[in-house]
Amino acid sequence: MLALSTGCWHLRLNFSTKKFKPKRSFCVYANGFPSFLPADVENIKDTFARDLAQRIERLPVQVPSLKTSIMSSCVRPVMQGRTDPVVLLHGFDSSVLEWRYMYPLLEEAGVDAWAIDILGWGFSGLESRPSCDVASKRNHLYQVWKSYIKKPMILVGPSLGAAVAIDFAIYHPEAVSKLVLIDASVYAEGTGEMSKLPRAFAYAGVSMALLEWVV
């Protein structure tokens, strides 16, 4: 079923199998990309990056320390399987586009995969200028999990995302069924000196996250 709403087409899946059950509609934008992405997205040549960028959504996430929700960017599964969801984080100053090659393979394998932008990086709406320190990243990810995922997940953290994943699993073990670390960059005292990165530099990551995909 197709329905036009807020500048995009909503496609709802109306079939089910023994392995999957219908979960939600997903948004297909008329111009191919969500309007909140930087204009540079049009210059991306990598087909896999373009395809995944077209799937990025922003979901409202209420963080207790803020009076307003953070519109949080992610790619979420079209349908929900019966196994534990796989939640993909990313490395320092990167985004969900880091998973442009792996995400389609996980979907083809029937994995209930989420790619989530860590608070302060990627394409989330940060107009409210929230704190993006270690605790804030953890609390934001917990609220995403609590609001949308709602069951124990296989949490995947590459590079500095591994530090975020480990920190999260320590504080919220009920939310993590398995922890997968890839080329982990982990500091005994959190994220080290990068936790002191000036906020302006963290917000600049939105545009920088696209540059490596522009050929």
From TrEMBL:
It holds the Pfam family Abhydrolase_1. It comes from the Eukaryota. Transmembrane segments: none annotated. Gene3D superfamilies: alpha/beta hydrolase (3.40.50.1820). Residues 85-184 form the AB hydrolase-1 domain. One of its GO terms (molecular function) is catalytic activity. PANTHER family: ALPHA_BETA-HYDROLASES SUPERFAMILY PROTEIN (PTHR43689:SF8), HYDROLASE (PTHR43689). This is AB hydrolase-1 domain-containing protein.
